[in-house]
Structure formats: structure tokens, C-alpha cells
Write a structure and sequence with these properties.
With 67 residues, the chain is mainly alpha-helical. Helix content is 91%, strand content 0%. The model has no long low-confidence stretch (mean pLDDT 93). Residues 56-67 have a biased composition (Low complexity).
């Protein structure tokens, strides 16, 4: 086996390892970003539900005055 074959194998292995690390890092960042976006959507949804519930209670209170 010549030096050129060893160099080729080394380049292939190094590229595979670095490609895997880069791919893992990118997917990790995408996952973190997605989770943050979903948390924000959930928070907005919960606020909207609370607001609607409060409006509903206000309307019921206006319709049913205290006796």
C-alpha cells in the first residue's frame, strides 16, 4: 500500500468524522430553535385562552347582575 492510499483513507475518515460532527451540531441547533419556537407558541396560546376566559367571565357578570 502506497503513501497515496494511506493519505486517501485518512482524508476519507477525517471527512466522515468531521461531517458527522457538523451534521450533529446543525441538527442540535435546529432542534433547540424548534423547541424555543414551540414554547413561545404555547405561551401565546395560554395567554389567549386566559384572555378569552376572562372575557367570558366578564360577559357573564354583566348579564347576571347581583341581586
Amino acid at each position: 500500500m502506497g503513501a497515496s492510499h494511506r493519505w486517501a483513507y485518512l482524508r476519507i475518515m477525517t471527512g466522515t468524522i468531521l461531517g458527522g460532527v457538523l451534521g450533529f451540531y446543525v441538527m442540535h441547533r435546529v432542534e433547540i430553535s424548534y423547541k424555543e419556537k414551540m414554547k413561545e407558541r404555547l405561551r401565546r396560546y395560554e395567554q389567549e385562552m386566559k384572555r378569552k376566559e376572562q372575557q367570558q367571565h366578564q360577559q357573564q357578570d354583566e348579564l347576571l347582575p347581583d341581586s
